Amino acid sequence: MKKLTLLGGMTAAEFLRDYWHKKPLVIRQAIPDFQALLSREELFDLVQRDDVESRLIMQEKRQWKMDNGPFEQVPPVTQKNWTLLVQGVNLVDESVDALMRQFDFVPDARLDDLMISYATETGGVGAHFDSYDVFLLQAHGHRRWRISAQTDLTLVEGMPLKILKNFQSEQEFILAPGDMLYLPPQYAHEGVAMDECMTYSIGFRAPSYQELGEAFLESMIETIDLPGRYADPDLKLPKHKAEISNTMLSRVSAELNKVKFTQEDITLFLGEYLSEPKAHIFFDAPEPLLSSARFIQKAKKNGVRLSLKTQMLHRGNYVFINGTSFEVGEEDLLVLQVLANERILTDVSVASASPDVIEALHTWYKDGWLTL
Ligand code: AKG
Fold first, then answer.
1. Would you say residue 218 lies in a domain?
2. Listing from the earlier edge strand, what are the strands of the sheet with 197-204?
3. Is 287 inside a domain boundary?
4. What is the pTM of this model?
5. Which cofactors does this protein require (predicted)?
6. What is the ipTM of this complex?
């Protein structure tokens, strides 16, 4: 297996075995001579958009202040001590998406997004912890990170952001462009900008079981089928008229216990749930919209690629794309798996696709889920 500069000369398997979820790692020059992919002006333009999530964070005395974007204007860059967080930049910028995909030794179902934080000198978001793993790649300027394996994760109450009450730094590092810090979940950390600074956070998705359970039950509502209605032809005079009888309880239990969930139900739920775009994400239909015949002709010649915002997953014979699922036959599956894994289908694969696949590709093209 290939040794990766990105992981300090380790193979991905070695990193997963020794660090992932286990301990922090500082990688000097993970990306040698790295330069920020977006200028601060390009970032400030992004935060004006309502399809990009952003937050502005400032600390005044011991109070934290946080505003949610979009922002027409941000504070002057000559003003110290403010941070702008721009979430999901990979969804709107190809070069950022390509950078995030370098972390594809972690499966797509776990990769969340790439957030860019811009800070002026002394800016930061306070000492905190995340519930998921994170790679913090320094893109511009310098940031001093202080980190701690502390188990006291008590938060300051009444703050608009999660701030640790008793942060006790154990290690400190200054990161320069191209350096990267990996932190496992729940690891306390605090980053402070030493000059004008941009940090890229590659974050991972770790839904809570509660969240999954609630969403699963909601998704199952329509599949529940319990015919009939409660009846008691053998009703006896009750001893206590307000008491729920054993007979009633066992009859209802027997019916409700008929609700069973199969592995397939869970597969379908998980695929749809994990491929569902976030609420603020919208897809734009292509302009001009090519006719079906023209689309097929071009797709067969040049191939197709998933749009940046599309999440496509697969499991067994199921394919999931942007919150929808469908079952496909062996041959079609081979073609669609390539599209899901490579995010691109070249001319050769499109040419060999069945009419069903071509039709699906055309529908996704019209919906803005893929491009030519
Ligand atoms: C995180 O993503 O957990 C961070 O701490 C990033 C904060 C920053 O870049 O200002």
1. no
2. 25-27, 180-183, 134-140, 197-204, 111-119, 82-86, 54-60, 63-68
3. no
4. 0.93
5. Fe(2+)
6. 0.96
